[in-house]
Specification:
Strand order of the largest sheet: 3-10-6-5-12
Number of domains: 2
Number of strands: 16
Order of helices and strands: EEEEEEEEEEEEEHEHEE
Shape: elongated
Distance between the termini: 42 Å
Helix content: 10-25%
Number of helices: 2
Largest sheet: 5 strands, antiparallel
Radius of gyration: 22 Å
Length: 198
């Protein structure tokens, strides 16, 4: 639920752009959320938390949890009017991209799309090499991963992981720099050993 500081119970319009009022929410640890996290307020309003550890909620806008002394800056992505008591839910949580993707939790029909999305994020984050864990099994996930890698922009090569990094249960992927526009397709390269990273 949300409260709007100084609203006296009346609906408060939130236009697009920087949040100019302070919203106080209950049950969501606002200060612990990453910048880019989206909140849905009521049915119409979407907010995106901004960078910054927090600031005093006295004179500026932002979002804070009940009993917290600081608010987190936010911007209104989808405008509307907020009313005290409107429900607040997490819409999306931004997860930092690491150099490992474990596919054990995903179904084979999800694999290609997940791999493509992950590699786009990894490349944008400047990672040069990542490890995709697909498991040994019968090779279904491995085949899907390798087929997907052949068409993902920015993949400059891939090979099975060395034994100490997953062996046949993982694939090492080398990525082009995000600034390299000439990398538009992958080439499986089993002749070059994978590095000692992920």
């Amino acid at each position: 639920m949300v409260a709007v500081r100084g609203s006296a119970g009346a609906p408060v319009p939130l236009p697009p752009g920087s949040l100019a009022v302070e919203l106080v929410v209950e049950g969501i640890p606002i200060a612990e959320l990453e910048p880019g996290t989206r909140l849905r307020v009521g049915r119409a309003i979407a907010l995106e938390l901004g960078p910054g550890a927090g600031r005093s909620g006295e004179a500026s806008g932002g979002v804070r949890e009940v009993d917290a002394g600081t608010s987190v800056p936010a911007r209104v992505v989808e405008p509307g009017a907020v009313r005290p008591g409107d429900p607040v839910t997490l819409e999306a949580v931004r997860v930092p991209v690491g150099d490992l993707l474990d596919l054990h939790w995903f179904r084979p029909d999800e694999t290609a799309a997940i791999v493509a999305a992950y590699l786009a994020e990894a490349r944008a984050a400047g990672l040069g090499e990542v490890r995709i864990v697909h498991g040994r099994g019968r090779g279904v996930q491995r085949a899907i991963v390798q087929q997907a890698l052949a068409g993902v922009p920015g993949v400059i090569g891939f090979a099975p992981a060395p034994p100490d990094r997953g062996g046949w249960g993982a694939t090492i992927v080398r990525l082009a720099s995000p600034a390299d526009p000439s990398s538009d397709g992958a080439r499986g390269d089993r002749s070059r050993p994978a590095s000692g990273r992920p």
